[in-house]
Amino acid sequence: MLGWKFLDPVAGIVISFFVVKMGVDIVVENNRIIMDAMPSEDVIDGIRNFIEKFPGIKGQSDMRIHPVGREYIIDVSVFVDRSLTVAEGHRIATSLKETVTKNHEMVRDMIIHVEPY
C-alpha cells in the first residue's frame, strides 16, 4: 500500500529468529535437567565450607548431591562431638538443614547423617 512491501519478509525473519532462540534456550535448559547436571564446583565448595564452619560441626564427609529438576538434595555425613547426646546432635543437624535450605535456594532438602568425632 505505502510501498513498504519489504517489511513483511523482514518482520517474518525477525519473529523467526526469536522463535528459534526460544526453542534453543528451552532445549539447553531441559538438557541440563535430563542429564542430571551438577552445580558448579564453586557452589559445591561453598556449601561444603559452610557445613564445616557451622557451629557444632567438627567436619563432614561423603557429600553427595542429587539433582531433582532444577533443585538439589544433599546427602552428607557430619561429625559432632562424641560427648553430645543424640538429641543435641539431632538439634545441630536440624539447624544445619534449615540454615542451608534457607540460604541456598537451589537446595530443596538435606539428608544429614550424624557421626561421632
The best one-word shape is rod-shaped
Instruction: State the domain count.
Output: 2
List low-confidence stretches.
none
Tell me which CATH architecture of the largest domain applies here. Answer: 2-Layer Sandwich
Rg over CA atoms? 24 Å
Question: Which fold name corresponds to the CATH topology of the largest domain?
Answer: Alpha-Beta Plaits
CATH superfamily of the largest domain: Cation efflux protein, cytoplasmic domain
Question: How would you characterize the largest beta sheet?
Answer: 3 strands, mixed
Q: Record the strand order, biggest sheet.
A: 1-2-3
Number of strands: 3
- Share of residues in strands: 25-35%
Q: Helix coverage percent of residues?
A: 40-55%
Question: What's the CATH C level of the largest domain?
Answer: Alpha Beta
Order of helices and strands: HHEEHE
Class inferred from helices and paired strands: alpha+beta
Overview of the molecule:
This protein has 117 residues and is α+β, with helices and mostly antiparallel strands. It has 2 domains: 1-35; 41-116, 2-Layer Sandwich (Alpha-Beta Plaits), CATH 3.30.70. Helices cover 50% and strands 26% of the residues. It contains 3 helices and 3 strands; from the N terminus they run H-H-E-E-H-E. A 3-stranded mixed beta sheet has the order 1-2-3, covered by helices on one side. Helix 3 (86-103) links the parallel strand 2 (71-80) and strand 3. The chain is rod-shaped and about 85 Å long. The protein starts with 6 loop residues before the first helix and ends with a strand.
